[in-house]
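Example for tutorial group B:
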C-alpha cells in the first residue's frame, strides 16, 4: 500500500506526526500556563535532568544562540521556575536548577506527555513500540554519521 514512495516521504510523515503532536501539547500546556512554550518545556526538562547544568550547557543542548537562551533563562527565573547560582568551578558561569515550582511544572508537563503518548500508542503492542524505537534509533545513528552539511564524506 505504501510501496514505491520516495524515501523523503518517511521524513515528511515523521514531521507531520511531530507537528500534530506539538500542537496537542501546546494546547494542553496553555491550560497550565498561557505563555509556556515548547522551548521552555525543553529547557526545564534539560535543567531537571542535568543537575549542575549551566547556561552554556543549555545553549549547546538547544542549538539556540546565547542571546536567545539568556532571554529564556531570565524569563524562566522571573516566573520563578528556575534558580541560578554562581558556578564554583567557573565564576563566569551560573548553575541552573529547577525551583520547587519549576519541578512541579515539569512533573505536570511530563504527565501530559505520558498521557498523550499512551493515547497515541494505544493501538501498538510493546513489541511494535520497541521496533519503532529501534528503527528511529537506527535512523538517528545514520544521520549522526553523515558529514556536516557542505562537507563531503
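The residue assignment follows.
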Amino acid at each position: 500500500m505504501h510501496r514505491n514512495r520516495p524515501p523523503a516521504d518517511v521524513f515528511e510523515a515523521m514531521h507531520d506526526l511531530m507537528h500534530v503532536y506539538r500542537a496537542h501539547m501546546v494546547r494542553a500546556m496553555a491550560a497550565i500556563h498561557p505563555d509556556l512554550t515548547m522551548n521552555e518545556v525543553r529547557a526545564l526538562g534539560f535543567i531537571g535532568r542535568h543537575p549542575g547544568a549551566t547556561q552554556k550547557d543549555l545553549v549547546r543542548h538547544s542549538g539556540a544562540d546565547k542571546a536567545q537562551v539568556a532571554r529564556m533563562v531570565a524569563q524562566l527565573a522571573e516566573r520563578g521556575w528556575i534558580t541560578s547560582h554562581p558556578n564554583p568551578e567557573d565564576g563566569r558561569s551560573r548553575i541552573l536548577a529547577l525551583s520547587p515550582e519549576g519541578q512541579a511544572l515539569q512533573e505536570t508537563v511530563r504527565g501530559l506527555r505520558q498521557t498523550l503518548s499512551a493515547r497515541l500508542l494505544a493501538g501498538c503492542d510493546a513489541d511494535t513500540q520497541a521496533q519503532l524505537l529501534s528503527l528511529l534509533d537506527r535512523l538517528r545513528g545514520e544521520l549522526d554519521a553523515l558529514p556536516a552539511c557542505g562537507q563531503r564524506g
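The first helix runs from residue 8 to 32. Compare this with the pattern of hydrophobic and polar residues in the output above.
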